[in-house]
Amino acid sequence: MATLFFIAIVLVVYLYDYSNSSKNRSNRSSYFNNSSATEKQKVLKGKQELEQKQPKERQAELTELFEKVLTKRKQELDQKQRKERQARLEKVLKGKQELEQRQLKEQQAELEFKNKFTIYANNYLTRDVTAFYHADYHSGGNWRIDGTIENMIWTIKNDVSPFPYRLPRTKQRLEHLLLTDLPKIRNKTNFNNLTVCVVPRSKAENHYRKDQLLFREIISLVVDVLPDFSNGTKYIIRHTNTRTTHLDRNGQGGDGNLPYPGITKNTCTILTEIQGKDILLIDDLYTKSVNIDEDAIQALLDNGANSVTFYSIGKTVLRN
After folding, report:
1. Which residues form a coiled coil (predicted)?
2. Helix (H), strand (E), coil (C) string for the chain
């Protein structure tokens, strides 16, 4: 009986220990299970954070790459635009230079006086003289044709066949012609200043009406408005009649002598103001072999002119 009781006690103790051991194992299993879940959550959270972080990093990398590409494209575009602007600027500058060169050539062409010739020394003139003229003068019936040089010269003389109705228009034409030609001549001579004198008409001053002295009057008006010119249009005044050469062949030359060496000094008063001056001597018409202009040039030189350049509106074309 005692033995059975002892066995019963041992069995109870065993069962109690087994029960406690099972609980402990269950608790340990639960602990480990809970610990594993926590770690798993941590791992999952870390994975999620990593996954969230990686897109951000990739986005940042993509953004940085995009900005680099954009900056490079912008630099390339800026460089291209600068090149295009530079090319346009160079094109504009080239066009401007070409225009300026063309304008300069045109200005130089305008300043060139093509109708230039030399009056050579002869019995009336001791040295060669540079001379200019506006246009050829053809003898014959051209003086009747309005608008020709021949008609202009005959109209301005206004003596044998007066042209009062033509005078205003002819005066304007002559003024324009002189305003154009005289600066070109000064440019060709390279003188700083030219004193303009006029070859006097063949008869004494008091022989003519006022409207027959328009040639000198118009020259005087033009010279007064041009820079680098001085007015000497009355520095040579005829006091004694000479023969009118362009009418003498028709027997209408009047009294006085035909040209001879020294006729200008003998029949004109030449003012001392010409001394030391560079003279531009103007006549309406130059005809070689008549020698009126050659003698007038020599008279100016003999009276102290520093130099004499000659200019005429027309230059007679000699017939063969």
Report:
1. 70-102
2. CHHHHHHHHHHHHHHHHHHHHHHHHHHHHHHHHHHHHHHHHHHHHHHHHHHHHHHHHHHHHHHHHHHHHHHHHHHHHHHHHHHHHHHHHHHHHHHHHHHHHHHHHHHHHHHCCCCEEEECCCCCCCCCEEEEEEEEECCCCHHHCCCCHHHHHHHHHCCCCCCCCCHHHHHHHHHHHHHHHHHHHHHHHCCCCEEEEECCCCCCHHHCCHHHCHHHHHHHHHHHHCCCEEECCCCEEECCCECCHHHHCCCCCCCCECCCCCHHHHHEEECHHHCCCEEEEEEEEECCCCCHHHHHHHHHHHCCCCEEEEEEEEEECCCC
CA 204 to chain centre: 49
Token pair 């030449």 in the structure block, residue: 270
**Does this model's pTM top 0.85?**
no
Which residues lie across from 59 on neighbouring strands? Answer: none
Residues 6+ apart with CB under 8 A from 167: 155, 156, 158, 211, 214
Could you tell me the fold of the domain covering 114-316? Rossmann fold (3.40.50)
